[in-house]
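quick q for whoever's on today - can somebody do inverse folding on this one?? i tried earlier but teh output was garbage lol. C-alpha coordinates:
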Protein backbone atom coordinates (compact mmCIF):
# COMPACT_ATOMS: atom_id res chain seq x y z
CA UNK A 1 0.00 0.00 0.00
CA UNK A 2 1.41 3.37 -1.04
CA UNK A 3 1.39 6.51 1.06
CA UNK A 4 -1.45 8.05 -0.95
CA UNK A 5 -3.56 4.96 -0.24
CA UNK A 6 -2.87 5.35 3.49
CA UNK A 7 -3.94 9.01 3.35
CA UNK A 8 -7.10 8.12 1.45
CA UNK A 9 -7.99 5.39 3.96
CA UNK A 10 -7.26 7.77 6.84
CA UNK A 11 -9.55 10.39 5.30
CA UNK A 12 -12.34 7.87 4.89
CA UNK A 13 -11.86 6.65 8.46
CA UNK A 14 -11.76 10.21 9.74
CA UNK A 15 -15.18 10.91 8.26
CA UNK A 16 -16.86 8.13 10.24
CA UNK A 17 -14.70 7.88 13.39
CA UNK A 18 -16.27 10.85 15.24
CA UNK A 19 -19.70 9.21 15.12
CA UNK A 20 -18.37 6.13 16.92
CA UNK A 21 -16.30 7.90 19.57
CA UNK A 22 -18.29 11.07 20.28
CA UNK A 23 -21.96 10.84 21.17
CA UNK A 24 -22.34 14.57 20.55
CA UNK A 25 -21.29 14.12 16.92
CA UNK A 26 -23.79 11.32 16.44
CA UNK A 27 -26.57 13.34 18.08
CA UNK A 28 -25.79 16.34 15.89
CA UNK A 29 -25.83 14.14 12.77
CA UNK A 30 -29.17 12.55 13.68
CA UNK A 31 -30.72 15.92 14.45
CA UNK A 32 -29.37 17.57 11.30
CA UNK A 33 -30.38 14.60 9.14
CA UNK A 34 -33.91 14.73 10.54
CA UNK A 35 -34.37 18.50 10.22
CA UNK A 36 -32.47 19.07 6.97
CA UNK A 37 -32.75 15.79 5.07
CA UNK A 38 -32.07 17.17 1.58
CA UNK A 39 -29.06 19.20 2.67
CA UNK A 40 -27.69 16.18 4.53
CA UNK A 41 -28.17 14.04 1.42
CA UNK A 42 -26.28 16.64 -0.66
CA UNK A 43 -23.32 16.63 1.74
CA UNK A 44 -23.12 12.86 2.14
CA UNK A 45 -23.23 12.08 -1.56
CA UNK A 46 -20.95 14.97 -2.49
CA UNK A 47 -18.30 13.48 -0.20
CA UNK A 48 -18.77 9.71 -0.37
CA UNK A 49 -19.79 9.21 -3.99
CA UNK A 50 -17.03 11.54 -5.18
CA UNK A 51 -14.55 9.56 -3.10
CA UNK A 52 -15.92 6.48 -4.84
CA UNK A 53 -15.07 8.02 -8.19
CA UNK A 54 -11.59 8.80 -6.91
CA UNK A 55 -11.27 5.14 -5.92
CA UNK A 56 -12.37 4.11 -9.40
CA UNK A 57 -9.72 6.36 -10.92
CA UNK A 58 -7.13 4.89 -8.56
CA UNK A 59 -8.04 1.34 -9.61
CA UNK A 60 -7.88 2.22 -13.28
CA UNK A 61 -5.01 4.73 -13.54
CA UNK A 62 -3.20 4.53 -10.22
CA UNK A 63 -4.08 8.05 -9.01
CA UNK A 64 -6.91 9.52 -6.95
CA UNK A 65 -7.03 12.77 -8.89
CA UNK A 66 -5.53 14.24 -12.03
CA UNK A 67 -5.70 17.33 -14.21
CA UNK A 68 -9.03 17.51 -15.97
CA UNK A 69 -10.75 15.03 -13.65
CA UNK A 70 -12.84 17.77 -12.07
CA UNK A 71 -13.05 16.78 -8.43
CA UNK A 72 -15.04 19.83 -7.27
CA UNK A 73 -17.62 19.93 -10.08
CA UNK A 74 -18.12 16.16 -9.72
CA UNK A 75 -18.78 16.66 -6.00
CA UNK A 76 -21.39 19.34 -6.75
CA UNK A 77 -23.12 17.10 -9.27
CA UNK A 78 -23.10 14.19 -6.82
CA UNK A 79 -24.61 16.46 -4.20
CA UNK A 80 -27.61 17.20 -6.39
CA UNK A 81 -27.86 13.56 -7.41
CA UNK A 82 -27.92 12.76 -3.69
CA UNK A 83 -30.92 15.06 -3.28
CA UNK A 84 -32.68 13.26 -6.12
CA UNK A 85 -31.89 9.90 -4.49
CA UNK A 86 -33.39 11.07 -1.19
CA UNK A 87 -36.53 12.18 -3.02
CA UNK A 88 -36.68 8.86 -4.88
CA UNK A 89 -36.48 6.99 -1.58
CA UNK A 90 -39.50 8.83 -0.24
CA UNK A 91 -41.54 8.54 -3.44
CA UNK A 92 -40.90 4.86 -4.14
CA UNK A 93 -41.24 3.83 -0.50
CA UNK A 94 -44.67 5.37 -0.05
CA UNK A 95 -45.73 4.85 -3.66
CA UNK A 96 -44.95 1.14 -3.74
CA UNK A 97 -46.64 0.61 -0.39
CA UNK A 98 -49.80 2.27 -1.68
CA UNK A 99 -49.60 0.28 -4.92
CA UNK A 100 -49.46 -3.10 -3.18
CA UNK A 101 -52.36 -1.99 -0.98
CA UNK A 102 -54.24 -1.09 -4.16
CA UNK A 103 -53.47 -4.59 -5.44
CA UNK A 104 -55.06 -6.15 -2.36
CA UNK A 105 -52.48 -6.21 0.46
CA UNK A 106 -54.40 -4.29 3.11
CA UNK A 107 -51.72 -4.11 5.80
CA UNK A 108 -48.70 -3.11 3.72
CA UNK A 109 -47.87 -0.01 5.77
CA UNK A 110 -48.14 -1.96 9.03
CA UNK A 111 -45.81 -4.62 7.62
CA UNK A 112 -43.25 -1.98 6.63
CA UNK A 113 -43.37 -0.46 10.12
CA UNK A 114 -43.13 -3.86 11.82
CA UNK A 115 -40.39 -6.38 12.44
CA UNK A 116 -38.55 -8.22 9.68
CA UNK A 117 -40.76 -10.86 8.11
CA UNK A 118 -41.17 -12.65 4.81
CA UNK A 119 -43.86 -10.14 3.79
CA UNK A 120 -41.60 -7.21 4.67
CA UNK A 121 -38.75 -8.67 2.62
CA UNK A 122 -41.09 -8.99 -0.36
CA UNK A 123 -42.19 -5.39 0.12
CA UNK A 124 -38.66 -4.00 0.37
CA UNK A 125 -37.64 -6.01 -2.69
CA UNK A 126 -40.62 -4.52 -4.56
CA UNK A 127 -39.67 -0.98 -3.50
CA UNK A 128 -36.07 -1.53 -4.60
CA UNK A 129 -37.18 -3.15 -7.85
CA UNK A 130 -39.42 -0.27 -8.92
CA UNK A 131 -36.90 2.37 -7.84
CA UNK A 132 -34.02 0.75 -9.69
CA UNK A 133 -36.05 0.01 -12.82
CA UNK A 134 -37.66 3.43 -13.22
CA UNK A 135 -35.28 5.84 -11.51
CA UNK A 136 -31.76 4.36 -11.46
CA UNK A 137 -31.21 4.14 -15.26
CA UNK A 138 -32.10 7.80 -15.69
CA UNK A 139 -29.90 8.88 -12.77
CA UNK A 140 -26.94 6.81 -13.96
CA UNK A 141 -27.27 8.13 -17.52
CA UNK A 142 -27.47 11.73 -16.30
CA UNK A 143 -24.39 11.10 -14.18
CA UNK A 144 -22.49 9.80 -17.20
CA UNK A 145 -23.52 12.83 -19.25
CA UNK A 146 -22.46 15.30 -16.57
CA UNK A 147 -19.14 13.50 -16.08
CA UNK A 148 -18.45 13.73 -19.81
CA UNK A 149 -19.44 17.39 -19.81
CA UNK A 150 -17.04 18.14 -16.94
CA UNK A 151 -14.16 16.37 -18.70
CA UNK A 152 -14.94 18.20 -21.96
CA UNK A 153 -14.38 21.48 -20.11
CA UNK A 154 -11.10 20.47 -18.51
CA UNK A 155 -12.54 19.57 -15.12
CA UNK A 156 -13.04 23.23 -14.26
CA UNK A 157 -15.69 24.37 -11.82
CA UNK A 158 -16.94 26.76 -14.49
CA UNK A 159 -18.18 23.71 -16.41
CA UNK A 160 -21.23 23.76 -14.14
CA UNK A 161 -22.22 27.11 -15.64
CA UNK A 162 -21.89 26.02 -19.26
CA UNK A 163 -24.78 24.46 -21.23
CA UNK A 164 -24.63 20.67 -21.56
CA UNK A 165 -24.72 19.30 -25.10
CA UNK A 166 -27.11 16.51 -24.22
CA UNK A 167 -27.71 15.20 -27.75
CA UNK A 168 -24.03 15.20 -28.74
CA UNK A 169 -22.93 13.43 -25.57
CA UNK A 170 -25.72 10.85 -25.81
CA UNK A 171 -24.72 10.04 -29.37
CA UNK A 172 -21.04 9.71 -28.45
CA UNK A 173 -21.59 7.55 -25.34
CA UNK A 174 -20.27 4.01 -25.23
CA UNK A 175 -23.67 2.36 -24.97
CA UNK A 176 -22.13 -1.09 -25.02
CA UNK A 177 -20.49 -0.40 -21.66
CA UNK A 178 -23.33 1.71 -20.28
CA UNK A 179 -26.05 -0.79 -21.15
CA UNK A 180 -24.27 -4.13 -20.85
CA UNK A 181 -22.34 -3.29 -17.66
CA UNK A 182 -23.75 -0.29 -15.77
CA UNK A 183 -27.44 -0.95 -16.36
CA UNK A 184 -27.77 -4.58 -17.34
CA UNK A 185 -25.46 -6.04 -14.69
CA UNK A 186 -25.12 -3.70 -11.71
CA UNK A 187 -28.84 -2.95 -11.34
CA UNK A 188 -30.23 -6.51 -11.12
CA UNK A 189 -27.23 -8.17 -9.49
CA UNK A 190 -26.19 -5.49 -7.00
CA UNK A 191 -28.48 -2.50 -6.64
CA UNK A 192 -31.84 -4.20 -6.38
CA UNK A 193 -30.77 -6.63 -3.61
CA UNK A 194 -28.60 -4.01 -1.88
CA UNK A 195 -31.39 -1.45 -1.69
CA UNK A 196 -33.91 -4.14 -0.73
CA UNK A 197 -31.76 -4.81 2.34
CA UNK A 198 -31.46 -1.06 2.92
CA UNK A 199 -35.24 -0.65 3.04
CA UNK A 200 -35.37 -3.20 5.84
CA UNK A 201 -33.59 -0.64 8.02
CA UNK A 202 -35.32 2.18 9.93
CA UNK A 203 -36.19 5.11 7.67
CA UNK A 204 -33.73 7.46 9.40
CA UNK A 205 -30.82 5.10 8.60
CA UNK A 206 -31.56 4.47 4.93
CA UNK A 207 -30.05 7.60 3.40
CA UNK A 208 -26.80 7.05 5.32
CA UNK A 209 -26.55 3.51 3.98
CA UNK A 210 -27.48 4.87 0.56
CA UNK A 211 -24.60 7.34 0.87
CA UNK A 212 -22.25 4.49 1.74
CA UNK A 213 -23.55 2.64 -1.28
CA UNK A 214 -22.94 5.87 -3.13
CA UNK A 215 -19.25 5.29 -2.52
CA UNK A 216 -19.65 1.92 -4.22
CA UNK A 217 -21.74 3.49 -6.99
CA UNK A 218 -19.11 6.14 -7.60
CA UNK A 219 -16.47 3.44 -7.87
CA UNK A 220 -18.52 1.35 -10.27
CA UNK A 221 -19.51 4.22 -12.54
CA UNK A 222 -16.03 5.71 -12.59
CA UNK A 223 -14.52 2.33 -13.41
CA UNK A 224 -17.12 1.77 -16.13
CA UNK A 225 -16.46 5.20 -17.65
CA UNK A 226 -12.76 4.35 -17.92
CA UNK A 227 -13.27 0.94 -19.52
CA UNK A 228 -12.09 0.73 -23.10
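ok took a stab at it. sequence:
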Amino acid sequence: MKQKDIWFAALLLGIFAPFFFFSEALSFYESFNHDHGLIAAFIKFAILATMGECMGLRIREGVYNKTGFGLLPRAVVWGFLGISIKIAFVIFDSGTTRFVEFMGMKNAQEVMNGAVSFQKILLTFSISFFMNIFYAPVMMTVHKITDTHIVMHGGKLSALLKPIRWANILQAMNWDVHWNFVLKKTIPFFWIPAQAINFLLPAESRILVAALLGFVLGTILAFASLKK
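fwiw The longest helix spans residues 71-102. also The radius of gyration is 19 Å. so keep that in mind when u check it
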